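Exercise: predict the fold of this chain.
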Amino acid sequence: GALAAKLLAPADGARIAMIETGGWDTHTGQRQRSAAQLKGLDALVASLRSGLGPLWDRTVVLVATEFGRTVAVNGTGGTDHGQASAALLLGGGVKGGRILADWPGLAPAALYEGRDLKPTAALDAFIAGALAEQFALDPARVGATLFPKALSGRAMTGLVRA
């Protein structure tokens, strides 16, 4: 986080940074492992916020994963790969304080293939919308450029403050 802030803070610095963290594939001992991972993520975002200072008010941080977890815990206290997942938008530039989802529920009949939370929104639409709004670009064009083979439809909008 601190290194990313140093690269992003100067007026002629980078405008986009990607930080990848590992250890989220929790097939075993998920409760303890996820707690440690979330503390690390919290520290990373806090150091980015601190390092950016007043620029944080215009910053958008996207936290996402390419796969979800199953609903039910497996025999080793973890979960296996699933379909739906979650993404977070953080930062002073975000129109926050809300959850954007069509909650399908956890009843057995509502699960995808009887084991996973049913996906209701496309991650690519979320990413394209956030990026387009942060940089005042056309959301449809950003979506088509970043995800040319995606069938998700329109980019989500209303994510970032103008």
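Check your answer against the key: Strands lie at 61-64, 68-69, 81-82, 87-90.
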